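Friendly challenge for the regulars: who can give me the structure tokens for this chain first? No prize, just bragging rights.
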Amino acid sequence: MLEKNYIASTVEAAIQQGLAELNLEEKQVKIEVINPGKKGFFGIGKSDAEVKLIIIDPTLKKLSSIEAIKNRTHSKDEVINTPIAEMAVDDTFTTKSVHKSTNDSSDANNEQITKQQSKENALHQTEQYIINIIQAMGLNIQATSTVKNSGEVVINLSSSDAARIIGKRGQVLNSLQLLAQNYYNHIEKGYMTVTLDIENYREKRKETLQNLALNMSKKAIATRKPVKFEPMPNYERKIMHQILTNIENIETYSEGREPHRYLVIKAR
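First reply, four minutes later:
Bragging rights claimed.
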């Protein structure tokens, strides 16, 4: 089984440590709490938390080990430059080797093209699925979609009813994005991050969350009391975790269960 244990001062810190090392999101793993840890009394009796991250993403489960998962974004096909004179024992061997290499390269290219076409087809169907939902809400909508080099699927929406599609603090847009995520992965039979955006809302929201996190970290330090945020999706909590990583004298963790999980900032 593809799994690994992580130890940190809190359960959330251990989870974030594991997700960062493996470059994963929470929905790609099953989390088992081995030891919730103890805060202790003035440091006495304190113990670290330990969690186990188990890979559940169908695509990643095809890899052979945790190391393969960690290195999956860094691995490249090795090219060995060997002089032809060293490769060839005779002309017949050389000809067959070159012919086989050409066929392998052609097969690999065809496979890559087929995979890309499959992704684009799934993306087109997902785009139309979301359009149909929004139109059923009585709203006008247009959409354009792209597959980034990172593998992320982005569906950009355009509408005169953008505010209604976004909803309060992005709740409607987030719900539509979840539907798009599930629909796409059902068609493509593999994990792929789907982002739904309209009028550059995601970038604006990211900036808002970062500023809010920085301001609330100052409040947590000044008051010496934990600052709790309203529930928000995992990727929004991750934005706040990341911006606060290098700030001294505070720690961040999440509490509650999805979809009511929220971020907490606490002074050390």
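Residues 1-76 form one domain. Residues 74-98 have pLDDT under 50 and may be disordered. Your move, everyone else.
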